[in-house]
């Protein structure tokens, strides 16, 4: 009798153990397990400036995790809180939360690259090289070969924007991507360009000057209007930014203030010595500068300065211009 009781108790305990084990497995799988066996890897994009709670919500919404709590626990145990960065990652619905967490803590294979307005391509190359881990040799090839195959595409067409670029993307294709974005941005203005009978190369040259010379988007139309006035009257533009481009990089950077001696640099980009526009654009302008060239402010001014607060003051005559210099800069 006792043996039967013992046997019965053993089977009860064994059954309870199996049930308990099955419950643990079920709960673990429900909280931490993969959602779909054998699923292919997918691209998961984390936008710039997305905080961690929003990233976790995005993972749940897109079906990579079941429960936010479980992922946050895995992230904590992996020491990953605050370490997930914006970019592109390869993850799969066949991954458990630990695998997803480790992947997102690691290095992204796609990088967000932010290119500000008004940079020359050497500066853009520096940003790309840093973000995409280019060697010095690859960077120099991008500057001197990949972006120099066609004269009209040497400068000015590498549109300033935010890009998501794979670290494995060929540098030449990166150059093409920036060119395509430039084309997309100016295409809506093609009718206006034809209407005004402006060569697109002329448009970009002037826009590149406006981009560097204006203190911001608000005074771009005025700067553009003055540049058009000087061109129409056959006056030298006498723009510092073109001389900065001709001079190249200094210890203070690419765009350090020019000196009197710099105005004598023998270069087709020196608008103190040469009439008309420089040989090519001097930087890569944004859309506001391009719009300003197409829709300039109507003005009788031929000169302008910015005071120490970056407020623009224009003048119709050289005498007025000298007066502005005396009043606002001395």
Automatic annotation (TrEMBL):
Q: Catalytic activity annotated for this protein?
A: a peptidoglycan chain = a peptidoglycan chain with N-acetyl-1,6-anhydromuramyl-[peptide] at the reducing end + a peptidoglycan chain with N-acetylglucosamine at the non-reducing end
State which residue ranges cross the membrane.
Answer: 9-28
Domain of life, per the record? Bacteria
Q: What is the protein's membrane topology class?
A: Single-pass membrane protein
Any single GO CC term annotated in Swiss-Prot or TrEMBL for this entry: plasma membrane
The annotated site for Important for catalytic activity falls at 213
Query: What is its EC class?
Result: lyase
Q: From the UniProt record, give one GO term of the biological process aspect.
A: peptidoglycan biosynthetic process
Give the GO molecular function terms.
Answer: lytic endotransglycosylase activity
Transcription among keywords: no
Where does the UniProt annotation locate this protein? Cell membrane
EC number(s): the record gives 4.2.2.29
Recorded hits in InterPro entries, A to Z, give:
MLTG-like
Q: Which UniProt keywords apply?
A: Cell membrane, Cell wall biogenesis/degradation, Lyase, Membrane, Transmembrane, Transmembrane helix
Q: Which residues form a coiled coil?
A: none
UniProt KW Iron keyword? no
Q: Which family does it belong to?
A: Belongs to the transglycosylase MltG family.
Q: Which PANTHER family match?
A: ENDOLYTIC MUREIN TRANSGLYCOSYLASE
Name the job this protein performs.
Functions as a peptidoglycan terminase that cleaves nascent peptidoglycan strands endolytically to terminate their elongation.
Name the NCBIfam families for this protein: endolytic transglycosylase MltG
> What is the protein's given name?
Endolytic murein transglycosylase
Species this protein is from: Candidatus Liptonbacteria bacterium RIFOXYD1_FULL_36_11
Gene behind this chain? mltG
